Amino acid sequence: MIPKIAVTMGDPAGIGPEIIVKSFSKKALYNTCKPLVVGDADTIQDAVEKLGSSLKVNVIAKVDDAVFEYGSIDVFDLDNVELGQLELGKVSAMAGKAAFESVVKAIHLALANEVDATVTAPINKESINLAGHHYSGHTEIYADYTDTKKFAMLLVEKNLRVIHVTTHVALRQACDMIKKDRVVDVIRLLHNACVQFGIEKPKIGVAGLNPHAGDGGLFGTEDDQEILPAVKEAVEQGYLAEGPIPPDTMFAKAVQGYYDGCVAMYHDQGHIPFKMIGFKWDNENQKMESVKGVNITLGLPIIRTSVDHGTAFEIAGKGIASEDALDLAIEYAIPMAINRMDKSKDI
């Protein structure tokens, strides 16, 4: 059972096309999945030429036309980028429109069971919005186009698995969104994901919102009034959850394997420890030496994994972008897809 994996092009003005070509240049990829790109074929061809790659671009109009052979890149061509007008490293409505359309097409292919999982290269939120598509990120696009109400962002790198109660909202708004029912839902999503990863009885740490998890109400009431009751309810439902725990303690224990998964209350609370592990800055050469980590959207009727870095406009087209995170995103999508294929066989 070798799953078909659709990889979206990302913003054509960013590093997406470049890291795709680098990932698809690895023979091992084709031993574990049937990968194809959803996006603009000319843009992928341009990335092939810029990198001096020997890969051939196979332009397809439907998934059945893909050859899935090492040495070629199957591109489901949307023909939506005018290369003569594209400026690498620049925000533009054209690039935003192309990136958005590739994501929507991949979602439709997955919903139609033409592909078994989707993997997304980075988009630029400003470009997407400039094109008239008012979303704050991939997660919200996927939720909207799959009509999903209960969903969450999960970040994975080594021992650290972090899910978020809130994501792309102002910090002031995030505090108001910390509610018992939402926290319980997120604990459940994280538990189910860990089981899917092969962890039979995952131990879950739930972060507090305020300093020292509120310290008995001295620094805020959300921890005692919303998070603690959520953890108690989750335990009653059979989940191995602990909290609220001061995040500075919880994440230090999690990276050593004490927790199988962590619940963060807001975007930066979860992203900062995650990127401290996966992102390596080379100060001598003033560049990122390595960018690792996978972003998975939980709660969807389809599979979506992603790199957890941006479009890196400042290095687009220079050939130095790391494909590490994309390799990992594809690696995580494969067992998730096989797991789902196995379940559909039994129905």
Automatic annotation (TrEMBL):
Chain coiled-coil ranges: none
InterPro entries reported in the protein's UniProt record: PdxA_fam
Domain of life assignment: Bacteria
EC number of this enzyme: 1.1.1.262
Keyword presence, Acetylation: no
Pfam family, any one: PdxA
Any GO MF annotation of the entry: 4-hydroxythreonine-4-phosphate dehydrogenase activity
Keywords from the named record: Metal-binding, NAD, Oxidoreductase
NCBIfam families (alphabetical): pdxA
Protein name: 4-hydroxythreonine-4-phosphate dehydrogenase PdxA
Organism of derivation: Belliella marina
Gene from which this protein is expressed: pdxA
